[in-house]
Automatic annotation (TrEMBL):
Pfam families per the UniProt record, alphabetical: Pkinase
GO terms for biological process, alphabetical: filamentous growth; positive regulation of transcription elongation by RNA polymerase II
Enzyme nomenclature, EC number: 2.7.11.23
Keyword DNA-binding: no
Lineage per the UniProt record: Eukaryota, Fungi, Dikarya, Ascomycota, Saccharomycotina
Alphabetically ordered keywords of this record: ATP-binding, Kinase, Nucleotide-binding, Phosphoprotein, Serine/threonine-protein kinase, Transferase
Residues engaged in binding ATP: 57-65, 80
Cellular-component GO terms for this entry: cytoplasm; transcription factor TFIIK complex
Name of the protein in question: [RNA-polymerase]-subunit kinase
Active-site residues, record numbering mapped to chain: 173 (proton acceptor)
């Protein structure tokens, strides 16, 4: 077991900014009284000394993840070591975003950022260690999903994303392996490297976000202005995947993703989606009719009528017609029988191997299903 070692007194500027904690004090009754504060270096070393690294559990182009423990409590934690020295400006924008948004967002269905410290040329994020994810469970065909289980995972995902959206933050990379599972069964949204605050509505945003299979049609058409609806689409596709146990819209490349999406939902027209033809990459060379209710029913034969209604609402082609997170949480799907499974009773993968595999949602390695998440410096 290797103890996390401090670099010494010198910290990189970017790491110092990201890891420094703001210290405040009340004004003194005596103007001549001097107040001393520990240096940033001392604070940084104090944080490092609270944790030990045990073994590597994942590695990507720009980050390595270690299993570790808190020294006092022996609580298992993950240490995400971001290699700041590889970037021209000292720190990747995705790392700054991840620290910023995880410090702002505190919710039971969002991964907890426990601490931040710097060492050598690295910025270290201390996170909950969550050894399973939803993708692992979906792929394990020995595990049977009940409708109440799927409802529970959907409910926790929507509660987490609702907290993001009510704080005006888009996640922009929701997918099954960014939905981590705690030992107690709680689902927690992770990987905020592509997250973005919704500020000026006239500001251009990148359309090259979200892993391809979960990318909303407005992004596929190159939209520079979009809303929380892109996250809702991703959740709808995850819902479909939970029911089918295979990826729902698995395009081989960006062009094929358009074709796969519109084969499933029909080619958007001005009648279905006003002003769609004004989007930068709009292309209607292949005209597919929208699916009938019967066609949707045949794809999702095990879904109840309300579950099918819910899926259709989440995956409307026109983003203005998708429900928002509040409306989703109030949908009748969640109140019809059966009730959502309690987290502690949800299926779990026995002898889970996830911690021994490359973990792209923690390490930001390349994703096999669309987006190169190793290069997250997108605006």
């Amino acid at each position: 077991m290797a103890v996390v070692q401090p670099r010494g007194s010198r910290l990189s500027n970017a790491a110092t900014v990201a890891s420094a904690k703001v210290t405040s004090c009340s004004s003194s009754s005596s103007s001549s009284e001097l107040v001393s504060f520990p240096s940033l270096e001392d604070q940084n070393k104090s944080i490092q000394d609270k944790y030990t690294k045990e073994r590597k559990v994942g590695e990507g182009t720009y980050a390595v993840v270690y299993l570790g423990k808190q020294q006092v409590t022996k609580r298992p934690i993950a240490i995400k070591e971001i290699k700041t020295g590889l970037f021209k400006d000292g720190l990747d924008m995705s790392a700054i975003r991840e620290v910023k948004y995880l410090q702002e967002l505190k919710h039971r269905n969002i991964i907890t950022l426990i601490d931040v410290f710097s060492s050598s040329n690295n910025l270290n994020l201390v996170l909950d260690f969550l050894p399973a994810d939803l993708e692992v469970l979906i792929k394990d065909k020995s595990i049977v999903f009940k409708s109440a289980d799927i409802k529970s995972w959907m409910l926790m995902t929507l509660r987490g994303i609702h907290h993001c959206h009510r704080n005006h933050i888009l996640h922009r990379d929701l997918k099954p392996n960014n939905l981590l599972i705690s030992p107690s069964g709680e689902l927690k949204i992770a990987d905020f490297g592509l997250a973005r605050s919704l500020g000026n509505p006239n500001e251009d945003l990148s359309s090259n976000v979200v892993t391809r299979w979960y990318r909303a049609p407005e992004l596929l058409f190159g939209a520079k202005h979009y809303t929380e609806a892109i996250d809702i689409w991703s959740i709808g596709i995850i819902f479909a995947e939970l029911m089918l146990r295979i990826p729902y819209l698995a395009g081989k490349d960006d062009v094929d993703q358009l074709d796969v999406t519109f084969r499933a939902y029909g080619t958007p027209t001005e009648q279905i989606w006003p002003n769609v033809s004004s989007l930068p990459l709009y292309n209607a060379l292949h005209i597919y009719p929208p699916p009938s209710r019967q066609e949707m029913r045949s794809r999702f034969s095990a879904a109840t009528d309300k579950a099918l209604d819910f899926l259709i609402l989440l995956t409307q082609l026109d983003p203005s017609r998708r429900c928002n997170s509040t409306q989703a949480l109030l949908h009748e799907y969640f109140t019809e029988s059966p009730r959502p499974t309690e987290p502690e009773n949800l299926p779990k993968k026995k002898n889970n191997k996830r911690e021994n595999e490359d973990d792209d949602n923690l390490t930001s390695s390349n994703s096999g299903n669309g987006t190169d998440t190793s290069k997250k410096r997108r605006i």
